[in-house]
Amino acid sequence: MGYKAVIFDLDGTLLDTLDDLAESGNRVLAAQGMPTHPREAYCYFVGDGLEMLIRRIVPEDRRDEETIRRLIQEFREVYSRNWNVLSRPYPGVDDMLEELRRLGLSLAVLSNKPDDFTRHCVQELLGNHSFVSVLGHRPGVPRKPAPDGALEIAETMGLTPADILYLGDTATDMETALRAGMTPVGALWGFRTADELRQSGAAHLVSHPGEVVELVRDKTASVQD
Ligand SMILES: O=C(O)COP(=O)(O)O
């Protein structure tokens, strides 16, 4: 059988959220008198959830639990007012989602972004597409690379993991897919390098969203041959 579903990572895969995340992070740091970071550095701070983002941007000698907790709260406040200034779907994402639906695939989003922000971003920026599940990071559920969220989506869809292609832009995503038994595909337009994606187990690398549709078509065709 060909693929029956695709699970997408959010930040760096469906949505280019880097500017708004970097701006919010730097505002929080500046308000504390802490040094800020160049926008590109956030490519490596984002991807493992909000708590990790804060731990990575705060100076090493200020990473006590009380400071981390307070800055998480402050980031949530700043980001909730600034998350959609520049964040947009990457070029080609809308067409890819439409085409995959037309081919009959089920679609879902799995992010390490807090669950409320994840739902909000998908509703506002990808609201004309229909997803079977949209899951962000929820307290009590281990975040990616733990396979829990990916397996929960497979169960909701009534599919086995082998039926599912997983598209993401970081090593965390590739590892999640492998641990869940899904096919890991690396998106090269996101926050990390081809080397990182290859080394973490990407079965395929794609440099444009349209190539995901081709992968799905190719697999269906090769099964029918
Ligand atoms: O860590 C984040 O906030 C972003 O998470 P994502 O890349 O899993 O969407």
Automatic annotation (TrEMBL):
Pathway: Organic acid metabolism; glycolate biosynthesis; glycolate from 2-phosphoglycolate: step 1/1. It is an enzyme of class 3 (hydrolase). Pfam families: HAD_2. It catalyses: 2-phosphoglycolate + H2O = glycolate + phosphate. GO terms for molecular function: phosphoglycolate phosphatase activity. Its EC number is 3.1.3.18. InterPro entries: HAD-like_hydrolase_sf (IPR050155), HAD-like_sf (IPR036412), HAD-SF_hydro_IA (IPR006439), HAD_2 (IPR041492), HAD_sf (IPR023214), PGP-like_dom2 (IPR023198). GO terms for cellular component: cytosol. GO terms for biological process: DNA repair. Belongs to the HAD-like hydrolase superfamily. CbbY/CbbZ/Gph/YieH family. This is phosphoglycolate phosphatase.
